[in-house]
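Go through this fold for my students:
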Amino acid sequence: MATTLCFEHYPIYAISILISSFLFTFLIIPSIIHVARNRHLYDDQSHSRKIHTPGISRLGGIAIFISFVITLLLFGTKSSLFPFNYLLISCILLFTIGIKDDLTGVGYLTKFTIQFLAAFIVVVPGNIRIQRLDGLLGIDLLQNFSCIVLSILTIIFIVNSFNLIDGIDGLAATIGIVANTAFSILFIYIQQYEIATISLSLVGALLGFIKFNLSPAKIFMGDTGALLIGLISAVMAIEFVRSFPLQQSLFPETRSALGIVTAILIIPISDTIRIVVIRLSKGKSPFKADRNHIHHLMLKLGFTPLQVTFILALINIILILVTFLFS
């Protein structure tokens, strides 16, 4: 791998990434709030799932996207083993459909078409693929076609999982921070510093955003932000699974990378599977919105949005630690 990064210098490099990405978002958000207020670019209060007060913009994802891309272009190093260009193209595609959805709305067919295209670009020309299942369902190595299909479906699933948990103040951003902090640590540990830069850039952007998004929220990330978090989290998960066999000496007690990435993404994955099963069991479309998500149920139990966000993030962290302790 062509890189000048090394462990001795990377801690300072990583801190620089986090600070830069944080500041970009932190400084951009107030301007977006100001423009949204003057132009009345507010969230749609007619939506049956909305639980907040009127007058809140859904355009926070613009700041997250700008911060992430600028930081990645500033600090990302050239690597022959990771297709940064294809990843950025996919990010731009999701940004385009996300901002249109946040402003005017987009049909499910259009949204899934763009998501498929973004996933296809990352998987086929980008060659970011799940190549093995570590014995899951009796399967170890995957054939090329199966590898492509499974990888595309996985990316689309995780992208939509983060979009679905973006239902209360701060939840998607907080889970995004937890997940990508975990990925950052893992990639630094296995000395994949260029890939760690990607997740660190997103973590910094989300840290700059979270101050304005925790309850009571001043701005939402909208689809623009949620889709980006989902894409980066999916790519980090697939890259770790792909890199794991080469780095297994660093994880001598851990048999499966799939277990690790599942623990990291357990909150969006489990809630999405659960909500789809519930909707299908009731004869409803899996795409029809409702208030049966785990965060909605916790709100009904009397928890505040801030408490729900904290509890789910804490559960996520505990499950990640348990995965390694009982690997």
User: Anything to note?
Assistant: Residues 45-53 have pLDDT under 50 and may be disordered.
